[in-house]
Amino acid sequence: MSAPGNKHRVAIVGTGNIITSHMRALQTSAERLELVAAVDLNEERVCQVCEQYHIPHWYTSVTTMLAEQKPDLVCILTPPATHLAIITECLEAGAWVYCEKPLCRSLAEFDAITEAENRTGRYVSTVFQWRFASVAKHIKKLVETDALGKPMVMLCNTMWYRTQAYYDVAWRGKYETEVGGPTMTLGIHLMDLFLWLIGEWEEVRAMAATLDHQIEVEDVSMALVRFANGSMGSIVNSTLSPRQESYMRLDFQKATLECKAMYRHNNDNWSMSLPDRADDPETLAHWSALTENNLGSHDMQLSELLDSMEANERPLVSGDEARRILEFAASLYKSAFTGQPVHKGDITPDDPFYYAMNGSTETA
Fold first, then answer.
1. Residue 295 sits in which domain range?
2. CB neighbours of 208 closer than 8 A, spacing ≥ 6?
3. Residue 46 sits in a domain of what CATH number?
4. H or E stretch including 301?
5. Bond from prior residue into 242 cis (ω within 30 degrees of 0)
6. Hey, what's the signal peptide range on this chain (predicted)?
7. Whether 89 and 155 share a structural domain
8. Residue 207: strand, helix, or coil
9. How many domains does the chain fold into?
10. How far is CA 219 from CA 65, 177, 212, in A?
């Protein structure tokens, strides 16, 4: 770990399309870090990326990079099936990890990561940048202080569109390599924000189907959720929706909050509505108290992750907080596959859904 005041040595593993967002975040925090290396099995691509972004060292081997560069932080941007092995190797080499979602393929893999964290004293944070917008943090405080009254009816819809060509990439469309469909790879961002804002969930009842793609995983899922605070919600994840939108609606006793966005959000994507003919200056004042307007971005999450590294504290989206969304996703799939409601805590190591989102031992 870098000494206080020194720059953190950072390496990237995986140089596919998502690297653009991560490079923007790394450049935003450039005064706090030194980007020392990039790794990819595709030698031509990693060389091009290193030239484009002036990264001094390129590798096709994670092992060699870790031995030679000794990074403090590794950003993992590879396909999901590769995450567990790379994360474990990075932790054991003394690095913290910032890993793209989904963090891993199963609760079994997550618990293996937790063991590696405990063994090495390093932490892993999942990329869930929606939580880090100013407005998200503001809403979280309003919920925690009961400023909007009791939460009651909640909607969380990731309505996106993907062609067959999107799924024709070798690792996509299969449970073993992509982990799942839009539930795990696209809608998981908004679902994470949803579950974080509203609180602990208790029960999920779900359906999933593959309606219009030649793939093994689902291209649509729908779920009903009961929360511990008594509120109820619905979730839709789709790659079948030509008019794309990420939409969240939160109905409280005193007001409705709505978000209409796509891949990221800030204050401008949110609105508040009061009941018809309501005169409630106190609730308006609570909502209007937000003055910052930071985008929910990789930039913001990386900055807070660096703060956590410097304080040697567990970052926000890790540990139990990261496991919670994975357990919810596994429970959603179990309900969809079995046709039965699933309660929090139901999936234990004697359950096939502990090892794979489709409950298959072949993908374990």
1. 130-299
2. 181, 183, 218, 220, 221, 222, 332, 333, 336, 337
3. 3.40.50.720
4. helix 298-311
5. no
6. none
7. no
8. strand
9. 2
10. 37, 16, 7
Tell me which amino acid residue 40 is: D
CA atoms within 13 A on the CB side of 224: 6
- Angle (CA) 237 233 179, round 5°: 35
CB 184 within 8 A of CB 206: no
Per-residue pLDDT of the chain (364 residues; tens, 9 = 90+): 554 568 999 999 999 999 999 999 999 999 999 999 999 999 999 999 999 999 999 999 999 999 999 999 999 999 999 999 999 999 999 999 999 999 999 999 999 999 999 999 999 999 999 999 999 999 999 999 999 999 999 999 999 999 999 999 999 999 999 999 999 999 999 999 999 999 999 999 999 999 999 999 999 999 999 999 999 999 999 999 999 999 999 999 999 999 999 999 999 999 999 998 888 999 999 999 999 999 999 999 999 999 999 999 999 999 999 999 999 999 999 999 999 999 999 999 999 999 999 998 764 4
Please give the model's pTM, rounded to 2 decimal places: 0.95
Which residues fall within 8 angstroms of residue 328, CB to CB, at 6 or more apart?
Answer: 191, 195, 201, 204, 344
In contact, 226 and 198? CB cutoff 8 Å: no
Could you give the 3-state DSSP secondary structure of residue 291? coil
Contacts of 361 (CB under 8 A, 6+ apart): 352, 355
CA 91 to chain centre: 20
In a domain, 341, yes or no: no
**CA dist 255 → 105, 192, 211, 281 (Å):** 38, 22, 36, 12
Query: 42-68 as b/e, with b when 16 or more CB fall inside 10 Å?
Result: eeebbbebbeebebebbbeebeebbee
Residue whose pair of structure tokens reads 């997550």 in the numeric block: 110
What residue has token string 């990819």? 40
